[in-house]
UniProtKB/TrEMBL annotation:
One of its GO terms (biological process) is long-chain fatty-acyl-CoA metabolic process. One of its GO terms (molecular function) is alcohol-forming very long-chain fatty acyl-CoA reductase activity. It is found in: Membrane. It catalyses: a long-chain fatty acyl-CoA + 2 NADPH + 2 H(+) = a long-chain primary fatty alcohol + 2 NADP(+) + CoA. Keywords: Lipid biosynthesis, Lipid metabolism, Membrane, NADP, Oxidoreductase, Transmembrane, Transmembrane helix. Residues 29-299 form the Thioester reductase (TE) domain. This is Fatty acyl-CoA reductase. It is an enzyme of class 1 (oxidoreductase).
Length: 356
């Protein structure tokens, strides 16, 4: 969403001062195994070497035990620099077995006590970003998952910062997205209970009315979730980060690094292989992209800002977007893609790249 408004500029904080603010801190991250989460963990380990520990919530997946997933996780190419230069820092990663979809996050009593007694900063990155997700799954992950994390955070004795990662598209019906609270279209807790009671057929019937012209269940549940987080103001030191479309890394840890084929990455790969021939959009509309490394650098800085801000009863909002400072249209994106493909064609293509 482009509104012609200048992107929030965080205070000029030297990287050393940010590193100092994280020294000795214990951090809890949800969604750490995802695209954005990996970059956050890598950056903290590489640049904030005096951090005490990073707790990662990891669930079993496809029959793979959380401990095995952690071992595979630290072998990812993202952590190559950390392994080569600061291998001992990988030991700062602490496995917490759990699941955002489970009641009370599925934590053991020992792990719960460990988090409650030690965690000082929370970064809630876990979310379902699929636009076609059924409302039941979208609510359970994005809304209910956040409620579970908030409930745990409320018990943390040393908490100084709670950063919720939202999206710039949480209020698609607004011409201008301001850095402020927006009431949800319905009561978040009421929607959570209703979705838990109704069967899928009824939910399918009422979903269009619930969305109220929002484009998908992702935007809808993100709006609900922001309002839910806002209700914890005064109880928790909260900041909400709203990145736009997060793309492959610009620089760190590897230029061009990315995972999966979601968003514009999938579009450009499909076009480069000649599979995608057209894109249904207005070429004059602005495409708002944020490289994942820039996004996570900002979110790490937001954690420092929230920690040091005396206004503990206020929710701090940050729109992380590029279109006001560095606008580029979808038409320009396609033209750049064609130019790059001419110089760097794919090794494998089904059809000569072309289209509109």
């Amino acid at each position: 969403m482009d509104d012609g408004r200048t992107m929030t500029m965080l205070p000029e904080l030297a990287s050393s001062s940010i590193a100092e603010s994280y020294a000795g801190r214990s951090i809890f991250i949800t969604g750490a195994t995802g695209f954005m989460g990996k970059i956050m963990v890598e950056k903290l380990l590489r640049e904030c070497g005096d951090i005490r520990c990073i707790y990662l919530l990891i669930r079993a997946k496809k029959g793979i035990d959380p401990a095995q997933r952690k071992e595979e996780y630290v072998k990812n190419i993202v952590f190559d620099q950390v392994r080569e230069k600061y291998g001992d820092r990988l030991e700062k990663i602490r496995l917490i077995r759990g699941d955002i979809l489970s009641e009370e996050l599925g934590l053991s009593e020992d792990d719960r006590r460990e988090l409650v007694d030690n965690v000082e900063m929370v970064f809630h990155c876990a979310a379902n970003v699929r636009f076609d997700q059924h409302i039941r799954q979208a609510v359970d992950i994005n809304l209910n998952g956040t409620i579970r994390v908030l409930s745990l955070a409320e018990k943390m004795r040393k908490l100084v910062s709670f950063v919720h990662v939202s999206t710039s598209y949480c209020q698609c019906n607004e011409a201008v997205l301001e850095e402020k609270h927006y009431p949800a279209p319905q009561n978040p807790e009421g929607i959570s209970k209703m979705v838990g009671l109704l069967d899928d057929d009824i939910l399918d019937l009422i979903t269009p009315r619930l969305l109220n012209n929002l484009p998908n269940t992702y935007a809808y549940t993100k709006a609900l979730t922001e309002d839910m987080v806002y209700q914890y103001r005064g109880k928790l030191p909260i900041a909400i980060a709203r990145p736009s479309i997060v793309t492959a890394a610009m620089k760190e840890p590897l230029p061009g690094w990315g995972e999966g084929t979601n968003g514009p990455t999938g579009l450009l790969i499909g076009a480069g292989r000649g599979v995608i021939r057209s894109m249904h959009c207005n070429g004059e509309y602005l495409a708002d992209f944020m490289p994942v490394d820039i996004t996570m650098n900002a979110i790490i800085a937001i954690g420092t800002e929230r920690m040091n801000d005396p206004r503990k009863d206020e929710v701090m909002y940050y729109n992380l977007a590029s279109s006001a400072e560095n606008p580029i249209s979808w038409g320009e994106v396609l033209e750049m893609g064609r130019s790059v493909l001419n110089d760097n064609p794919f090794c494998f293509a089904l059809w000569y790249p072309d289209g509109s």
